[in-house]
TrEMBL record:
Pfam families: OMPdecase (PF00215). Belongs to the OMP decarboxylase family. Keywords: Decarboxylase, Lyase, Pyrimidine biosynthesis. Substrate binds at residues 40, 62, 153, 218, 238-239. GO terms for molecular function: orotidine-5'-phosphate decarboxylase activity. One of its GO terms (cellular component) is cytosol. It comes from Candida tsukubaensis (Yeast). This is Orotidine 5'-phosphate decarboxylase. The active site is at residues 93, 95, 98. It comes from the Eukaryota. The keyword Transmembrane helix does not apply.
Amino acid sequence: MSSITLKSYAERAANQPNAAAKALLECMARKQTNLSVSVDVTNKQDLLDVCDAVGPNVCLVKTHIDIVEDFDMDLVEQLTALSKKHDFLIFEDRKFADIGNTASLQYSSGVHKIASWSHITNAHLVPGPSVISGLAKVGVPLNRGLLLLAEMSSAGALTKGSYTQACVDEAKKDTTGFVCGFIAMSRVDEKEGPNTEKDLLILTPGVGLDVKGDSLGQQYRTPDQVIRESGCDVIIVGRGIYGPLMTEEGKKDKKAAFVKVREQGERYKKAGWEAYLARIGQK
Ligand code: 5FU
């Protein structure tokens, strides 16, 4: 049996049992993009404007909804409308890490009601598999998907060795059907040969074409290193795309900054897709 990395996204979509992962793979194949934009801006209008600018080039918008200062449910409604307009899914990067009961309340309730609008979310396995069961109780009836944080991109991350392996083992033996992949830097499910048990997605942050890192431990690799060399499936790009908005120049002339944001989206989309075509031998 061959590695998951040699299959096309379309082929994998056809056999994917998790509805959110299936929709994501179908969207990737349809739009020819493995780019997810991480929109880490702190006001509602900027968040929506970035999504509108890069929407045509992405399969997935990743949010940190708790950093938005003027959050309200209208933001969620508008974001959902943009996801339909541009054909992308939404991933709230919430990184749940509490006991099952608390995680399930954090996912379903509170101000953000994440489960009601986010197709995909993620969790640390630190509390043990009960965090999966707690979240699955809420997410499975809504056809959502869960990623386990098997590896992180920051320098000195403790997500390695037996911890990473435990994430892989839990994902493979998950009976809820909720776990559909990982946040990881490499093809963690194929460390010991092809994964023939269960198709799992690998979404990878820490991607940049122009710089190697930031001053707070982030480490960047190129789309080619991530998709072709490391066999991951989706590149997650934040400041590499919306960065032009954060400069002094960008704050003064937002219109010009959004032109650059759109161009960066196109650039990362192209780089990610070329790396994928090279990986599956179509280039
Ligand atoms: F799980 C992880 C991780 O290991 N590294 C990350 O960078 C998540 N992230 C997120 O991806 C992080 O919280 C940001 O939202 C985003 C990366 O943003 P950047 O601007 O491309 O560095």
